[in-house]
């Protein structure tokens, strides 16, 4: 068993006594029975807080009684967020597997803090999972080029609605029937989702309110099903659950055929309970049931609303993706995906790996 620790319980440099263990295939004694425990055969990151807090850690705690929901409403440059950002940066840079990372920018870290309501332990786990996922899936994470999948995008496969839902969440639509599995692999299709996720995760309001997705499974066929193997299912569920700084507020399936269920059954075990509870199957009666979750004003007519047509919103989002080509390529080629730091700043030389860097700054996109 390989166990790498970020900080130690008695280490005053470790903020709030955060301890991180990287566990390959075995559960730590204090993680037995916890949700999200280690799954056999795949590396897993577990994060826990100790009850003891050093005097140095106490000095860096925020001097306010605001909870996570209140903190997430504050602007990025709020002094009340500063301590959380500094503490998260310090803890992340102490991770053995990130020993070559020089720094993280404030704006990068705030995404992860908002995604976990400023819980430092959970935010740290999310940062490490995100970077681990990027390293383990280079066939997806290093190729984020909208022009490479333009043929798929112009079929009106994917859209982000121009208006948010009543809770302020971004609403994404995926039209599976527009995907021809003879022309496009499941990996290429999944990249489209990652491109959108990288773009909208930079939006402050989306960091606060999260996303909801509508998957239209009309046209789902055996050809689609054969593209989804257990390995890809695991990667998809990883991004949905605990490897990307976005709050998934709801997943809505419409027009789902009976033979889609075996594929969903393959993905479902990898999803945490909170995500499972947010999956809604509407069948072919979705024109009536989607209105229980979304205002008609934001939905296209094809989905029971009176907003812009699906072809128009798909075209508009395709243009948004194409305009973001350079940004997405920089994210894909960057060591950590934090494009607010230069590649040189993000990595440090071997002789300086032990240097503690606790400050970072945004240099622009």
TrEMBL record:
Biased composition (Polar residues): 47-58
Pfam families: CRAL_TRIO (PF00650)
GO biological-process terms attached to the record: vitamin E metabolic process; vitamin transport
Single GO term (MF): lipid transfer activity
CDD domains (alphabetical): SEC14 (cd00170)
CC per GO annotation: late endosome; membrane
Stretches for region Disordered: 37-72, 332-365
CRAL-TRIO domain location: 149-311
Superkingdom, taxonomy of origin: Eukaryota
Protein name: CRAL-TRIO domain-containing protein
Organism field: Crenichthys baileyi (White River springfish)
């Amino acid at each position: 068993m390989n166990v790498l620790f970020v900080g130690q319980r008695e280490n005053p440099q470790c903020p709030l006594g955060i301890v991180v263990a990287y566990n390959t295939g075995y559960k730590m004694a204090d993680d037995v029975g916890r949700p999200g425990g280690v799954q056999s055969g795949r590396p897993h990151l577990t994060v826990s807080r100790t009850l003891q807090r050093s005097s140095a850690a106490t000095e860096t705690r925020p001097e306010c009684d605001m909870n996570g929901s209140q903190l997430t409403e504050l602007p990025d440059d709020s002094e009340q967020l500063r301590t959380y950002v500094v503490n998260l940066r310090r803890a992340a840079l102490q991770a053995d597997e990130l020993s070559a990372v020089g720094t993280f920018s404030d704006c990068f870290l705030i995404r992860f803090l908002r995604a976990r309501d400023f819980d430092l332990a959970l935010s740290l786990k999310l940062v490490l999972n995100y970077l681990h996922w990027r390293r383990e899936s280079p066939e997806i994470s290093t190729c984020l080029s909208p022009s490479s999948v333009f043929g798929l995008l112009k079929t009106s496969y994917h859209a982000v609605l121009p208006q948010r839902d009543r809770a302020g969440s971004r609403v994404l639509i995926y039209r599976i029937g527009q995907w021809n599995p003879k022309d496009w692999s499941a990996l290429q299709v999944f990249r489209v989702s990652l491109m959108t996720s990288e773009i909208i995760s930079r939006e402050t309001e989306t960091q606060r309110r999260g996303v909801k997705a509508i998957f239209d499974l009309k046209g789902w066929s055996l050809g689609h099903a054969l593209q989804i193997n257990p390995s890809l299912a695991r990667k998809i569920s990883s991004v949905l659950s605990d490897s990307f700084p976005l709050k998934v507020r709801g997943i809505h399936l419409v027009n789902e055929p009976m033979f889609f269920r075996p594929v969903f059954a393959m993905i479902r075990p990898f999803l945490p309970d909170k995500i499972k509870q947010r999956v809604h199957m509407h069948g072919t009666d979705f024109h009536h049931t989607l209105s229980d979750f979304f205002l008609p004003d934001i939905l296209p007519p094809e989905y029971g609303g009176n907003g812009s047509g699906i072809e128009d919103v798909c075209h508009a989002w395709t243009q948004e993706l194409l305009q973001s080509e350079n940004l997405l390529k920089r994210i894909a080629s960057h060591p950590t995906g934090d494009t607010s730091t230069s590649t040189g700043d993000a990595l440090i030389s071997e002789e300086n790996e032990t240097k503690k860097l606790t400050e970072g700054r945004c240099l622009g996109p």
